[in-house]
Specification:
The chain is an alpha/beta fold. The protein contains nine helices and five strands.
Length: 218
């Protein structure tokens, strides 16, 4: 049984239909500068790097799309681990062109959340899955977002649609939220690295958004 509740295998032939990370980047039509900036910002500690260098060799299926903010944030982290550690064979698959793969990893059994990172051993058995982003990152940014709104009453309620704001106020809100995301990037990257390392080490079969009771993989 796989980490995600199905008999998780993939064939080498199916895996090799994916593209390399560099090929994915070359095909991007948006957000390339953001992705490159995020990749450059990834920091692996000496301990992390040593763990990835001695880790078991794994094949990794990454479901992605260049319009998704979580892909732009987290795929570069995985790519740096694969490049610097030298033990992960990474292939990227466009989400909407690979429905058979996406349907295996629906978030909470319903949502096509990306990125999905599915890890397979040398016999092509699934050994771990990471979906979207760690819950700790979601919680951190939700708390920081509330702080932004609390510090700026002119932004109104955090639950109100931003398009109800005047254009200049909406622009300031977007600037403050982007600043918040930038300030939490290093913490977010560290959490992604921690969860991927746990999968590679064999200490966990799961990373990213936790599945709720009754959902696939729960």
């Amino acid at each position: 049984m796989s980490a995600y509740g199905w008999m998780g295998t993939i064939t080498r032939e199916r895996f090799e239909r994916g593209v390399s990370y560099d090929a994915f980047k070359d095909a991007m039509t948006r957000n390339r500068e953001r992705l490159d900036a995020n990749e450059a910002r990834v920091r692996l500690t000496v301990d992390d790097l040593a763990a990835f260098e001695r880790g078991r060799p794994l094949h990794v299926v990454a479901l992605a799309a260049d319009w998704c903010g979580d892909v732009i944030a987290n795929l570069p982290v995985l790519a740096r681990i694969a490049r610097d550690g030298g033990r992960l064979d990474l292939r990227v698959f466009e989400r909407d062109q690979n429905a058979d793969l996406m349907d295996r990893y629906l978030n909470q059994g319903s949502y096509k959340s990306i990125p999905v990172f599915a890890f397979f051993d040398e016999q092509w058995n699934e050994v771990g899955v990471f979906i979207e982003r760690p819950d700790a990152v979601t919680e951190l940014r939700a708390r920081k977002r509330r702080e932004v709104f609390a510090a700026h009453p002119e932004f109104g309620s955090p639950d109100a649609p931003p398009d109800q704001l005047a254009e200049d106020v909406r622009a300031r809100l977007q600037q403050e939220l982007q600043k918040m995301r930038d300030e939490t990037t290093d913490q977010a990257n560290a959490e992604v690295i921690r969860e991927i390392r746990a999968i590679v080490d064999g200490r966990s079969t799961w990373g990213g958004a936790r599945q709720r009771q009754g959902a696939a993989g729960a």
